[in-house]
Amino acid sequence: MKMGSTGKILTVVPARYASSRFPGKIIMPVAGKPLVLHAYERAQEATLVTDVLIAADDPRIVEALKPFGARVVLTRADHPSGTDRIAEVAEQFEADIIVNVQGDEPLIHGETIDACIRPLLDDPEVDMSTARVLITDPAKIANTNVVKVVCDGRGRALYFSREPIPHIRDAEERAQAPACYWEHVGLYAYRRDFLLEFARIPQTPLERLEKLEQLRALETGHRIAVIDTDYEGVGVDTPEDLERVRAILEI
Per-residue DSSP letters for 149-185? Predict the structure, then answer.
């Protein structure tokens, strides 16, 4: 991490204990450390980031991280989303840009975080940024747990969906299986003022239908830059996912 001339850039790693599918996963041991600590340490590798902290919703997370010296802030437990948790932190800390690195993404790359930040440094019209990776596994295209994104010619998001987008109408085009499907990577960077505004906006119709928060930004006219990456995240949502991550990190 280093302080740049562009101002302070704060990365916040939201850590929620009561995961509906896998309670307590965020502090499950992986290679001798709580799961969330891996995401925290990876975020520290980003060269554009000034500081990194973990936003926890439960004292058990704080206790689990004490032996490792990680910077942890205890937030309210009733936030409906990680974005709201990060907005609470953003109100307490001065920063020009706030980065959201998921606590259950222990393999995130520092260079991917840096790439996600750059659109906010380069383009004053962009309110937030995120990332996408080309889908190479055909099974992911129809998987509604895999969020897809389509962009305009300037690399700004047009829409996010759990359904396959774009729809390929012609059979001949479908048979050729063009490389046109992109998976959304759950990494975000926000201008601080926008993040605080965004957290106060009520849920929008498309957001409620797709259960995708980023649609709230699009529906209210905000611009989302999307960077291309080769990072394919291994998010931990189930005990099986945890074992996959352990197999990678406990070599």
Answer: EEE-TTSBEEEEESS-SS---SHHHHHH--S--EEEE
